[in-house]
Design a protein that fits this description.
With 272 residues, this protein is an alpha+beta fold. It has one domain: 4-Layer Sandwich (CNF1/YfiH-like putative cysteine hydrolases), CATH 3.60.140.10. It contains 5 helices and 15 strands. A 6-stranded mixed β-sheet has the order 1-2-3-15-7-4, covered by helices on one side. β12 and β13 form a beta hairpin. The longest helix is centred in the N-terminal third of the chain and has 16 residues. This is Purine nucleoside phosphorylase. One of its GO terms (molecular function) is S-methyl-5-thioadenosine phosphorylase activity. Its cofactor is Zn(2+).
Length: 272
């Protein structure tokens, strides 16, 4: 579902909200429209680590917070390392990585919690943001799933943590796959293709015509495969279907913009 919020900013603001978002849980994916950043980071850049002006990123994050995702002091942001580590967070971790002078949760690519008023944030610019909601046990998760995290089955690790800690059952889990680079634009070589074959099979790789050793890959299809293997019903998996590389006018893409760009985010927050 597309939402456009209007506020004090003169540019239009575009968001996508998962189908499960509502009174109990706030969730969404930012786009680059709006915001205060300039140049290569034009728009609503939310990444401190990409070379943008720190004050502008701080202002961008404050604006996002005003759009229904709680104060920045209640955000939890990880130092993402393209792995499958999952951190269990709550009140003690609030503000981690949220401000430029506060260290992020170290070395992990997914966060889970069952504590209200804790906003989980993942930053992306082609990798897949995945949001999780258990409406029965009121628990949430967020994952940053690049090709390494995907082949390491990070979404399954999120479920295993939620199942163990919060008694989440796969049949109840609601999952949203956010804006990310898609098969139309995601060309990979055998360095990526080999672990994909090993973990998921050949069917997720489309050979590039007359180009040996090059393939187009759908990370989103691999992620959905992992979720279905867990027993998550197909109707509980929502893929927003937007390619970051195709839409650099409204999204950041590390690949399409040759590594010099900002970061959008996926956020999810339990409400009281």
């Amino acid at each position: 579902m597309f939402h456009r919020w209007t506020g004090s900013m003169t540019k239009r603001d575009i968001w996508v909200t998962p189908a499960f978002a509502g009174e109990s849980v706030s969730a969404g994916y930012s786009f680059r429209e709006g915001g205060y950043s300039e140049g290569a980071y034009r728009g609503l850049n939310l990444g401190f680590h990409v070379g943008d002006d720190t004050q502008k990123v701080t202002e961008n994050r404050a604006y996002v917070a005003e759009c229904g995702f709680g104060p920045v002091s209640e955000w939890v942001v990880a130092k993402q390392v393209h792995g499958n580590g999952v951190a269990v967070v709550g009140q003690a971790e609030r503000s981690s990585g949220a401000l430029a002078d506060v260290l992020p949760v170290p070395d992990c690519d997914a966060l889970v919690t069952n504590e209200p008023d804790t906003t989980l944030v993942v930053l992306t610019a082609d990798c897949v943001p995945v949001l999780f909601y258990d409406p029965i046990h009121h628990a949430i998760g967020a994952a940053h799933s690049g090709w390494k995290g995907t082949t390491l089955h990070i979404v399954q690790q999120v479920f295993f943590h939620m199942n163990f800690l919060y008694h989440t059952e796969a049949k109840d889990l609601q999952v949203s796959i956010g804006p990310s680079i898609r098969r139309c634009c995601y060309e990979v070589d055998d360095k990526v293709a080999d672990p994909v074959r090993r973990e998921f099979g050949e069917q997720y790789l489309v050979p590039r015509f007359q180009t040996k050793g090059k393939y187009f890959l759908s990370l989103q299809a691999c992620i959905q495969s992992d979720l279905r293997k867990l027993g998550v019903p197909a109707e509980n998996i929502d893929d927003v279907g937007v390619c970051t590389s195709c839409h650099t006018d409204v999204l950041f893409s590390h690949r399409a913009e040759h590594g010099r760009t900002g970061r959008e985010c996926g956020l999810i927050r339990l409400n009281q």
